[in-house]
Design brief:
Strand content of chain A: 25-35%
CATH superfamily of chain B: Histidine kinase-like ATPase, C-terminal domain
Distance between the termini of chain A: 31 Å
Largest sheet of chain A: 5 strands, mixed
Largest sheet of chain B: 5 strands, antiparallel
Strand order of the largest sheet of chain A: 1-2-4-6-7
Structural class of chain A: alpha/beta
CATH topology of chain A: Transcription Regulator spoIIAA
Number of strands of chain A: 7
Number of domains of chain B: 1
Oligomer: heterodimer
Shape of chain B: globular
Number of domains of chain A: 1
Number of strands of chain B: 5
CATH topology of chain B: Heat Shock Protein 90
Radius of gyration of chain A: 13 Å
Number of helices of chain A: 4
Structural class of chain B: alpha+beta
Distance between the termini of chain B: 18 Å
CATH architecture of chain A: 2-Layer Sandwich
Radius of gyration of chain B: 16 Å
Chain lengths: ~110, ~150
C-alpha cells in the first residue's frame, strides 16, 4: 500500500494512493494503519480522496484497524468519494467512523 | 439475450481484473455508472467469498462468472466447485443481516468480516443459491429497465 503522508500539528494525515481497497490488499492496508499508531502517531486521519472502490474486506480492514488502535489513538476518515461514502452508509459504518469532507475539518475535530 | 462467460483462477489478486471487466460490460449494456459500480462490487464480493470460503483461500481452482442480459434484467452467476455455502450465510444472503449485526453500538464488538453477503442482499433485486452436482452457483439479478428507458438509443 502506498500513502502520502503529511503532518498538521500533532495529526498525521495519510492519503491512500491506491484507487482500490479490496480483498487482495486488505491485510497490508490494515497492517500499515496499525503500524502508524505503533510508531507513535496517536492521531491519524486517513484521506480517501484517491479511492474509487472499497469492498467489504477493505471495510473489514478499517474496522480491524480501529479495534487494534483502541484507546492508543484516534482514527478519522476524510474526503471519501460518493461511491466510497455510500458503502459506509450501506453497511452503517458511517456511524462507526468519524468521517469528514476534508483533512482540515478532520484535524480540527481532533482538537476538540 | 446476451451472454458472457468469464473465469479466473482462485487467487484474490485476480478479483479486481474480473470486477473491472464486469463494470465495463455493464456500461456497454447501458447501465449508468452507479448501477455498474454496484454490480462490480457485488461481483467482487461473491467471487472473493468463493475463493475464501468455497476454496478456503487455496489457488488452483476456477471461479466462473456468467453475465446474462436482456432488455430488463441483468443476471450475474458466480460459480465454483468448492465447499457449499453454510446455511447460516445463505440466510444473510436472502434475509439480510440479523438486527444485532446491523447496529454497531460498540466498535470493539464489530466483526471484521461477513459484510459481503449483506451488501449483495442490499444492492441486488433478487438472489438465489444452488448447490448441486459438486457445483455451487450464486445467481444475482438486477432490474435494469430504468437504465434502458433513460438511454435514448
Amino acid at each position: 500500500m502506498r500513502f502520502e503522508e503529511r503532518r498538521i500539528a500533532d495529526v498525521l494525515v495519510a492519503k491512500v494512493l491506491e484507487s482500490r481497497i479490496s480483498a487482495d490488499v486488505a491485510l497490508p492496508f490494515k497492517q500499515a494503519l496499525i503500524e502508524y499508531v505503533n510508531k507513535g502517531n496517536r492521531r491519524l486521519v486517513l484521506d480517501l480522496s484517491e479511492v474509487t472502490f472499497i469492498d467489504s474486506s477493505g471495510l473489514g480492514a478499517l474496522i480491524g484497524s480501529l479495534k487494534a488502535i483502541g484507546d492508543d489513538g484516534e482514527l478519522a476518515l476524510c474526503s471519501a468519494r460518493e461511491t466510497v461514502a455510500s458503502m459506509f452508509k450501506l453497511t452503517r459504518m458511517n456511524k462507526v467512523f468519524r468521517m469528514f469532507s476534508n483533512p482540515d475539518d478532520a484535524v480540527a475535530a481532533f482538537s476538540h | 439475450m446476451k451472454q458472457l462467460d468469464l473465469a479466473i483462477e482462485s487467487d484474490l489478486a485476480n478479483v479486481t481484473l474480473l470486477a473491472v471487466a464486469v463494470n465495463r460490460v455493464c456500461l456497454e449494456l447501458g447501465l449508468d455508472p452507479s448501477q455498474a459500480g454496484e454490480i462490480e462490487l457485488c461481483t467482487a464480493e461473491a467471487v472473493t467469498n468463493a475463493i475464501r470460503h468455497a476454496y478456503h483461500g487455496k489457488p488452483g481452482h476456477v471461479v466462473a462468472v456468467r453475465l446474462s442480459a436482456n432488455r430488463d434484467n441483468l443476471l450475474i452467476e458466480v460459480s465454483d466447485s468448492g465447499s457449499p455455502m453454510p446455511l447460516e450465510h445463505q440466510q444473510t444472503l436472502f434475509n439480510g443481516p440479523k438486527a444485532s449485526d446491523a447496529e454497531p453500538a460498540n466498535p470493539q464488538a464489530l466483526p471484521e468480516g461477513g459484510r459481503g453477503l449483506h451488501i449483495i442482499y442490499e444492492l441486488m433485486d433478487n438472489v438465489s443459491y444452488v448447490s448441486e452436482e459438486m457445483r455451487n452457483r450464486l445467481i444475482m439479478g438486477k432490474s435494469v429497465a430504468a437504465a434502458h428507458i433513460a438511454d435514448p438509443s
